[in-house]
Amino acid sequence: MDKNKKPTFATVWLSGCSGCHMSFLDLDEALIEIANKVQLVYSPLIDIKEFPEQVTITLVEGAIANEEQLSMIKKVRTRTSILVALGDCAVTGNVTALRNTEIDGDKKVLKRAFIETSDINPQIPNEVSKLLKKVYPLHEKIPVDYYIPGCPPSPENILYFLTELLAEKSPQVEKRTKFG
Ligand code: SF4
Fold it and tell me: Helix axis angle, 30-37 relative to 155-166, nearest 10°?
């Protein structure tokens, strides 16, 4: 990381419950410390629609469940130096991947969400991004640099990781750069 410039920082929300982002926000006053050391350039927490061209660190919550997310995470990967899988859905698929245990789980999820539980006008909307046949943890589709497991990861673990990374130490958490 260039010592003369603050590293740029992003967070991305794929198929997850937002609990990992909530845990990040639970850093409370430590967030101010982190915010002083990075430049936040993209996140569901701020109103920027396009992922920037070059980001130093990106935390990704959630698994890859639809075509839009697959295309998004490939773009994020090409534009990010250090990509971190944040939480068990990103790391293993976790609850998001429960539909993988069913034959035609993608179709069953849509039917349950839009037909069986609908009181009026039951139909699957066209605007919904096409679900992938199965849900994937990040490393099955893109190279991942670091993993922070947990459902959600504790604020203490997130803080430890970011503090070590921003101090340019290699955090003592699992690291894998190999794809697949
Ligand atoms: Fe939610 Fe747990 Fe998945 Fe994080 S890992 S998105 S808290 S279900």
Answer: 30
Residues with CB under 6 A from ligand 1: 16-17, 19-20, 61-62, 87-89, 94-95, 151-152
| CATH code for the domain of 80 | 3.40.50.700
Domain that residue 110 falls in: 8-166
CB atoms near residue 147 (< 10 Å): 23
Pairing of strands 8-13, 55-61: parallel
Residues 94-124: tens digit of each pLDDT: 999 999 999 999 999 999 999 999 988 899 8
Kindly report the protein residue whose alpha carbon is nearest to atom 2 of ligand 1: 151
Distance CA 59, CA 147 (A): 9
Q: pTM of this prediction?
A: 0.90
Query: Which two three-digit tokens encode residue 176?
Result: 């894998």
Answer whether residue 3 is part of any domain: no
